[in-house]
Design goal:
- By secondary structure, the chain is mainly α.
- Helix content is 69%, strand content 0%.
- It is built from seven helices and no strands.
Length: 166
Amino acid sequence: MTIDFLRQLGIFAVLCLAQALVFNRIHLFGCATPLIYIYMILKQERNYPKWGTLLWSFSIGLTVDILSNTPGMAAASLTLIGAIQPYFMELFVQRDAADNLSPSIKSLGYGKFCFYAATLTLFYCAVFFTLEAFNFFNLSQWISQIIGSTLISLVIILTIESVRKK
């Protein structure tokens, strides 16, 4: 096994346990729940195989589903994010950049990384909470869950990234 695989397996375990034991119990104002496990997919390298990204996405989503009692919602949403992440990352990375570039504040810059993370997190939260609600009868609660969870997740992701940078 390579060091990169073991490192990703460690990040996988830490994010799943942190989500299940800590972040699932946080509900700010009754609508904002941090969903930090998307961080692993945001940090996938540029040349990482697309099938590998999809496999990691599904695996972490399924693990979070099992630990959080959300039947298939995280797995479906995160697999969709894993499918679009490589193409979305190409919008922010220069063509002559290294093939093994990992998106971070240091490699993309604060503004680009923040926009990259915010857009994918917003898309993830929109898909996740749409699957959870499965209707649009309570539109204001649905929108507040998406916006609130996106903001709190983004703050935590940027905090982790800033601490990890040093």
